[in-house]
Amino acid sequence: MSSRHDHEIKLEPTPRMFIPYVSGLPLRLLVLFLEYVPGLSNYFFWSRKINVLRNKRFNDEITVMPLPLPNEVFGIEEPMIINGLEIFDQKNKYNPILENQKFLCARDFTEAYLAKRVTPIQVCEKLIDKIDHSCSKACDPPLYGMYQYHKDDIMAQAKASTARYNQKLSLGPLDGVPVAIKDEFDVFGYETHGGTLFLNRGKPASKDAFLVKKLKDQGAIIIGKTNMHEIGFGTTTNNPNTQTTRNPYNPNHYCGGSSGGSACVVSSGLCPIAVGCDGGGSIRIPSSFCGIYGLKPTCGRISMTGDYPFINSVGVAGPMAANVDDLALAYYVMAGKDPEDPKTLLQPSPTLHNIYHTNTLTDLKIGVFSAWNKQVIDPNIKFALQTFMNEFQLRGAKFIEIDIPELDNARIAHLITITSELCSTMNGYRKSLRLLSPPNKMNFAVYNHISSSDYIKAQQIRTRIMRNFSKIFTGVNLILTPTCAITAPPIYPRALKYGEINPSVTYNGVMYTQLANLIGIPAITVPAGYNDKDLPIGLQFMAKWYDEATLLRVAKASEEILGSNRRKPSEKYWFGDLL
């Protein structure tokens, strides 16, 4: 990552939308026209102004994978604790969860097992019934958070965990804890469909993804695959193929996407931890909409071996959890080097250093770009942001006004990068693309007009933005923004059968999240309250490369600040009484 010039390249601001909202029969007709009327898809491409880079000249070098320069890596403090799992040892009284916490955490499960109040077998028997109900018409409407779950496999894992507890051979703080996996990671015996009707049909995975194996090695019970937006290309998890996942706080609103099923099952209490994947906000957006915690790690921090490679340079795996302790636990277990994923070999050792030092934050400088943060649509988000800033200041944190140059350039560069990589992957399935839902048929018709020149220039902009952020992080530890400019958008019944194109929801969903994916830095979303419709609000912190520990520390402080104001969903959509 380097650049020969420091001057800012300015582009014309691009519009928020290139077409209005469309769904149902009009969407199907539009897709037919795009596919069969010569020149129409090219018109939509040009009207979107995605080609705005094509006639610009850049002298910057190309950064294809957003890994930091060596000085960014070597500047990371090595962990004080050799084995970070020690702070989760049941024998140690680490910073306890809040007494008013309404969501079960991993520690609740393991303590119940150790005390012989319940066994993993009993928990999983109850859990399977609750999953069945959450996906049945008796739920009215069903949440559809889980997509695939093999009851025999769940019970086999539960029996093995129960035997370990009976023999006093627990594997650690995840043994017997239910964990769900997004349906783009391989889980032995499950087919990885990626939200489609054609990927890997009849081809169950012969082995676990690297991160799944690491979770299983700690005794986690993998309860199955969660629903997702088709091929991860959307922010709502509206998926006509696999059913649309609904928000436990209001089933008439979306849960976010593309890792919407993972957010749903955690938010509704079916499990305390789930795994998602984030290419432009796909962990953070649904976590924000569903009122849980979500961590998008540094590029290369968690192995992607065994992930379906939809988006190679912007997609990262990460944990989603009902509380920060479990988020940290899952992150620490999954992070680390994997010889089969070269991106992971550069990283320093993962650490949980200081994540419970939250009473005083005098050592933290937090950057805010006020003009950007004010672009939220829901005024309740502004109020939540200011409230949390006030609370952080009471703990000694310093807020510093910063400028983030070339934001619109970064947005275009990310759009070109993620769509180019996705089109490149899916074009290998030309004969099956007819099975895609109408929104993605339209997306491919438009985005396949991106040229190699567009892609190269997007990577040159990536170089510039990475350099800009290296400079910004010399003056601040963190950057604070809203997670999204909106809260969970409504589900329109006419969108359920064929999907929808909603540029406003997409734009306002990824406004603050896509930047971290473009340049590879870690980011976290924390629940920060609720709007006047009782829908969750999320705030986002971004940190320099590999500094997930500081993100987890401010997330823990945020959890304490929200405190008793944290709410669980209504009883109808709450399935967390597992113990």
Automatic annotation (TrEMBL):
GO terms for molecular function: catalytic activity. It comes from the Eukaryota. Residues 140-552 form the Amidase domain. Belongs to the amidase family. This is Amidase signature enzyme. The lineage of its organism: Eukaryota, Fungi, Fungi incertae sedis, Mucoromycota, Glomeromycotina.
